Amino acid sequence: MKRVIGFFTRVFEAYLPDAFVFSLVLTLVVLGAALVMTPASPLELIDYWGRDFWSLNGFSMQMVFVLLTGSVLARTPFFKFVLNKLSGRVETERGALLLLVFFSLLVCWINWGMGLILSGVFAIELARRLKKVNFPLFIAAAYSGFLVWHGGLSGSIPLKVAGSDEILRKIYPGLSIPLSETIFSGLSLAILISMIMTLPILILFLRGARAIPTQFPQEVSESEEKMDRSSLRDWLEYSPALNIIFFILFLLNIFLYFRNGGVTDINRVNFIFLFLALFLHGNPHRFLKAVSLSLESCSGIIIQFPLYAGIMGIMQHSGLAEVIADFFVNISTQNTLPLYTFLSGGIVNFFVPSGGGQWVVQGPVMLKAAQMLDVDPRKVIVALSWGDAWTNMIQPFWALPLLGMAGIGLKDIMGYCLVILIWSGLLIGTLTLVF
């Protein structure tokens, strides 16, 4: 196992570029593939690229808020207290890794943005206490929980189809699929339980003696909070009054929203985590400091999402996404369509690293295939969701916040992530086929 990891680590260290450069190269790869595999001309492809370059601005802001609110929540005194208590009970690297993987799986299932950041903070806290550890493996272990995000409460596709989704409505008029039939379906829960049972064991097999100096995230300093009680401005900034008032307004709004039949979608999840973070930070000053520190982790999304939107434009308008999806559809049967949906979802995720974006590009193709082959669309949706999450292990886009916090590069964790990818792919693919 160490030789395999060592080989992949050497390869990635030698050839893997920065994630931004990776997205630039990927754009050229998609242009070349579309030129060969679709009837679109070079000028048409360039037009598709520019036409959709800014098309995901609204969705990008949703994703920024998912990550931002999760990060701000992770920096609250409450969560820091919990992490300190948890890490204080760990004495060995083995125990730390087991706890870290279980923690990451749980928190990423609840909210992927909070899970990414909170798992990273926890990994650094554990490394700080143990002092000499295989730090890249700790970060890879923290990132491994991201495998379950799309089968969790903040999964983009399940949340979209739980509401009034245009794509689903066009193919299956009148159909709305509640979370009980996606996130809480038998297939999704079987995959989740299998991950919880096997991933910690796999991480222990990946242990080695390699050590890298640990860098720690900045924290909101208590000592800087000096309030001039004679100043109205300072009173407003440092007083908990506004936080409490708006938390009460938030609770009333949540009550009215769900009483009137509202559903849990991406905006509602962001709304909940935003005001929960505001309340737990105690006052506006601490909250804004946490926001300022957390914004850095969003920079990768902000600068790279337009590039991926351009890639999505090429994939969608040229028909390249349909070519890839149709290949799997054409070799599918009623029994194998969910498996091939999972595999094709993993491939398309390389070019469209956004669950919502992938649903726009690939969702219509897979739903039409489900309709033609008389396959339950719910199972196809679950398979597509897990396929999107699966290849995030080697897609650098979502690892950026975690790596920036840890102060290490993508190449440091990629060997471990590739092994996790292979194992999880075998596990999820098997369950999708036979369940």
Annotate the secondary structure layout.
Blueprint: H1 2-15, H2 19-37, H3 42-51, H4 57-74, H5 77-87, H6 93-110, H7 112-130, H8 135-144, H9 156-162, H10 166-171, H11 186-205, H12 232-238, H13 241-259, H14 266-281, H15 284-295, H16 299-317, H17 320-330, H18 337-351, H19 355-373, H20 377-390, H21 400-406, H22 410-434
Helix pairs in contact: 1-22, 2-16, 3-16, 4-7, 4-14, 4-15, 4-16, 5-7, 6-7, 6-8, 6-11, 7-8, 7-21, 8-22, 11-22, 13-14, 17-18, 17-19, 18-19, 18-20, 18-22, 19-20, 20-22
What can you see in these coordinates?
It is built from 22 helices and no strands. The radius of gyration is 22 Å and the shape is globular. The protein has helices at residues 2-15, 19-37, 42-51, 57-74, 77-87, 93-110, 112-130, 135-144, 156-162, 166-171, 186-205, 232-238, 241-259, 266-281, 284-295, 299-317, 320-330, 337-351, 355-373, 377-390, 400-406, 410-434. The protein has two domains: 2-211 and 295-434, no CATH class; 234-294. The model has no long low-confidence stretch (mean pLDDT 83). The protein is 73% helix and 0% strand.
Structural class: mainly alpha
Radius of gyration: 22 Å
* Structure annotation, total helices: 22
Q: Major sheet: size, sense and barrel closure? A: none
Strand content range: under 5%
**In total, how many beta strands?**
0
Mean pLDDT: 83
Q: Assign a percent range to the helix content.
A: over 70%
Q: Poorly predicted ranges (pLDDT <50, ≥5 residues)?
A: none
How does the overall form come out from the CA principal axes? globular
How many separate structural domains? 2
Element-by-element helix/strand order: HHHHHHHHHHHHHHHHHHHHHH
Q: Kindly report how far apart the N and C termini lie.
A: 30 Å
